Amino acid sequence: MPTSTQKHRNFIAEPMRDKPVTDLAGVGEVLGERLKRAGFVKASPIAYAVLGQFLLLRKNRELFQDWMKDICNANAKQSSECYQCLKDWCHEFL
Questions:
Q1: pTM of the predicted model as reported, rounded to 2 decimal places
Q2: Domain 6-89 is classified in which CATH homologous superfamily?
Q3: CA dihedral of 26, 29, 33, 34, whole degrees rounded to 10
Q4: What residues does each domain of the chain span?
Q5: Which of 33, 58, 61, 90 gives the lowest tally of CB atoms within 10 Å of its CB?
Q6: ∠ at Cα 37 (60, 74), nearest 5°?
């Protein structure tokens, strides 16, 4: 498994609750603002919404990364970090 960031470890350490979408690994202020404009505001409703999209795409890396590129212009590194964060969170909590 690739080395995870502290942000990644923090996210997967607990349930989503009311986390902002910027708590997702790979999502900083710029991508967070783009997701917000697209209707994805909080990690909870929105990280949950991002999680929902992740699940709708059947946890498929390529489809999820393409979706992130389309919805918020994420680059490969950002979308890969977000994908891995959600995958690991699902492993812990679902």
A1: 0.88
A2: Barrier-to-autointegration factor, BAF (1.10.150.40)
A3: -40
A4: 6-89
A5: 58
A6: 40
Question: What is the chain's pLDDT, residue by residue, as a tens digit (94 residues)?
Answer: 456 899 999 999 999 887 888 999 999 999 999 998 888 765 445 566 888 899 999 999 999 999 999 999 999 999 999 999 999 999 999 8
Find the length of the chain. 94
CA angle 89, 64, 83 (to 5 degrees): 30
DSSP-derived 3-state class of residue 42: strand
Give buried/exposed letters for 3-24 (b at 16+ CB in 10 A, else e): ebeebbeebbeeebeebbbbbb
